[in-house]
Amino acid sequence: MQQLTKNKKIELINYLKKFCSENRQQLITKNLSNRTRHLTTVLENIYQPQNASAVVRSCECFGVQDLHIIENDNSFRTSRGVVLGSAKWVNIHRHKKAEHNTEACLNTLKNQDYKLVATTLQPGSKPIDEIDLTQKTALLFGAEEKGLSEIAHNMADEMAYIPMVGFTQSLNISVSAAICLYTLTKQLRTNDINWPLTDDEKLELEIEWLIKSTQNGRIIAESFLS
Predict the structure, then answer these.
(1) Which of 46, 68, 143, 212 has the largest CB neighbor count within 10 A?
(2) What is the pLDDT of residues 166-206, one digit of tens each?
(3) Residue 148 and residue 200: Cα distance in Å, rounded?
(4) Taking a C-beta distance cutoff of 8 angstroms, is the pair 22, 49 a contact?
(5) Left (φ > 0), alpha (ψ -120 to 50) or beta: where does 21 sit?
(6) Are 86 and 106 in contact (CB under 8 A)?
């Protein structure tokens, strides 16, 4: 869609609302106020569709707007029965065109002022609830069994783990992501951190969500703008 001024975005939003139920409008408004880009998630080489889908769903449920997918050896696929439409409400960024996709993705995030936190059991890791979220933070998760690559470990600014007290010291990737996202988003919302979306980001996302909530929404929006 073409670049729009703030006033034009507001006009488009008001127009699209005519085609969207009041209940959906209220839900969009509520969810916009709880969305964040202060925390983002990165998946490296996840190959099981069920796990990938569950992480997408967790991001959406906990208000994390962006999910970065690194496809070095495995293609990212979702399972419709697990994702349950949540992928519509999350921005998924796929990194698969560079020679070294992990390095390219993580350098992009660093350039956007994200601190990289690798989830790992390696020495030097700290409990996930001790991560300082003052700076924007990208949470890195590796493939099933193998975990994060050496490149991801080396580029990480910090490492974190989920404390456990059983004989088993590892969790399924989707469970790990859900626990970490719950822990960190709760921390965000109970600390004096500027985590919400900017006003312009909210306008952009509101347009996107209204279009997705309306039958023939894209055609209606383009017709209004033409």
Answers:
(1) 46
(2) 888 778 889 999 999 999 999 999 999 999 999 999 999 99
(3) 34
(4) no
(5) beta
(6) no
Contact 140, 149 (CB under 8 A): no
Under 8 Å between Cβ of 28 and 209: yes
Domain 38-201: assigned CATH number: 3.40.1280.10
Tokens of 166: 């059983």
**CA 172 to each of CA 91, 141, 146: distance values in angstroms, whole numbers, following the listed order:** 23, 11, 12
Query: Do residues 69 and 75 touch, judged by C-beta distance below 8 A?
Result: no
Quick one: which of 107, 90, 95, 92 has its CA closest to 44?
A: 95
Strands (E) located in 35-186: 39-44, 66-70, 91-95, 115-119, 126-127, 137-141, 158-161
CA distance 170 to 25: 41
| Domain parsing of the chain, residue ranges | 38-201
Task: Report the C-alpha gap between 154 and 152 in whole angstroms.
Answer: 5
Report the distance separating Cα 185 and Cα 182, nearest Å.
5
Amino acid at 8: K
For the chain, the straight-line distance linking the first and the last C-alpha, in angstroms and rounded, comes to 11
Residue 50 — very low, low, confident or very high, per pLDDT cuts 50/70/90? confident
